Request: fold
Amino acid sequence: MERTIVLFASGTSGTGSMRRLHCKLLNKPKEDTRFVEQFFLDGEPQKIPTATIPNDGGMYLFNLPPQFNKSQPLSPHKFIVNFRDPRDRLCNQYHWEFVHPKPHLSQEQLSAHKDKVCEEGIDAWVLRNIDTRYYDNFWWLLSQPDIDFCVQSYARLCLDFDSYVSRSCEFLNVPYTHEIKRLLSDEAPNQLTQNSKWIGNIWAGSDNSPGRFKHELREETIVKLNHAFEHTLANMKKYDPDFAITYE
Reply:
């Protein structure tokens, strides 16, 4: 049996594109790729911290990094590891507070929530929601001796789409042909606004390039984030050296 492919990702704008892209490469339906992601059941967010990777040769998304079950075997699987600059991700999350579904809230509660977030403002919200542990399982996973992985960062997806696709093809043993390029062209960043499935056409506040924090946050906020995420950003430079400058 073929090894299971796991897209181990941070929850952010590019994850949906990556999911669709790899499903197309492997000729698998997107609907069959749920392993663990945040979803709603009876109006409440559900997280499954003890879920184990299916050992069926499929392709699955895992986008709740802090809840990864580290006791499970890794060697039977292949991991495509996607991370994003935490400063950009926090900006992304702030804007999603206004548009992301919150079915556990009534309309009155939702309106009050949006008013509160708006009044607080992006800088204060971002600083209040710093979570330096969010990426810890990325570095744990990538340090394991028996893991077969390929780092495919959000920065690469946005800044060098061709190399992103070619690296995935090589990792998944899929020939990188002109037909593959045509098949995946609608997931390229310069085409995403025309792609009805792009998350930015569903939820406002999404983006398709790194570095948004530089023009959305005050300089003093950025300094505090740089200090808080010093270890995280250093690891991103280490594992994504082609785009190390984006983590400065």
The mean pLDDT is 84. Residues 123 and 220 are 9 Å apart (CA to CA). Strands lie at 4-9, 34-36, 39-41, 44-46, 59-62, 77-82, 148-151. The longest helix spans residues 107-120.
